[in-house]
C-alpha cells in the first residue's frame, strides 16, 4: 500500500501544473471609441452580435474554463479587424493561440449560418422595384438591381499541389471573391470559392446568381465593368463612345457601377484581414472568413455603424469575343441609350 501511495504522489509531482490566464474582457476595459478602433463595431454593435451569436457558439459545458460567447465574439472580431497573426490576438485577450484559432473558426462558421438571413438578393417585385428606384436616383440608369465586381483576397495557405491555380495576374496567391451590391452599399450576393487565377466573368457565369439571370429567373439587370461580357441582363460601358448620348450613358454607368468599387474598399478597410499580406489559413477556411466578414458588413449597415475609409482598386479590362447573347446585349444597350440618354 505504501508503494502505491508513493507512486501516486510521484506521478502527481511530475504532472504539469495547470495555469489559467487572466482573461481581460473588452466590455470592462474600453470605451466606445477604443472599442470601435479595436473591433470595428461600437459597444452597441458588439452587444448585438453577442446576443445574436450566443446560442450558436455557447460551449456545452464550462469545463476547462471554456470561453463565454461574449469573449469568443471579441476574439474573432479582433482577428477580422486586424488580420494579424493569431498570437497577437491571443495576447490582448489572455488566451492561448490554439484557443484563438478554434474560436475564430467557431465564430466564422456561426456567422456563415446567418448568410441567407443577412445577405439577400432582391427577388420580390417590391424588392426589385426598390432596388431599381435607388439605382435610378443615383445616375438615371434604369432597371438596375445590382452592381457586380470581383475583388481578390490574398492567401497564405494555398495548397502546394494546386498552388498555380491560386496565382492571380499579379503573381500572388488569392481567392477571387464576387460581390454584388445595391445602391445603399449593402451586399446582396457573395461568392467566395474560386481561386485567384479564375477570371471575374467565369466566376459570374458559373455562380448560382449568374445561372439564374441567364435562365431568366431574376428580373432587372446588373452593371459591371468591361471585364465582363455584355449580356441581356448585364450591361457594360462602351469602349469608344461616340456622340453625347453614348457619353452620357458611360457617365451614368460609371456613377452607378462605382457603388460596388466603393463597397469593396469599405469591406476591406473595415476588416483588415482581407487586406495586406492575406489570410494565413488554408483556402477553404479563408473562404469561410470572407463570408463571415460579408455577413458582419451587412449587419454593420443595418445597425448604421460608423463607416471606414474607402479605397478603390483598379481592374484590367480584357476583351471578350461577341456571341449571340452579347449581340442581344448590344441591341438592348443601344435601345437603352436611345431611350434614356439621347
TrEMBL record:
Localization per record: Cytoplasm; Nucleus
> Which keywords fit this entry according to its UniProt record?
Cytoplasm, Hydrolase, Metal-binding, Nuclease, Nucleus
Q: Name one Pfam family in it.
A: DDE_Tnp_4
Where is the DDE Tnp4 domain positioned along the sequence? 148-298
Q: Does the keyword Hydrolase apply?
A: yes
> GO molecular-function annotation terms?
hydrolase activity; metal ion binding; nuclease activity
What does the similarity note say? Belongs to the HARBI1 family.
Q: What does this protein do?
A: Transposase-derived protein that may have nuclease activity. Does not have transposase activity.
Give the protein name, as stated in the record.
Putative nuclease HARBI1
Q: Which organism is it from?
A: Strongylocentrotus purpuratus (Purple sea urchin)
User: In the record, what lineage is assigned to the organism producing the protein?
Assistant: Eukaryota, Metazoa, Echinodermata, Eleutherozoa, Echinozoa
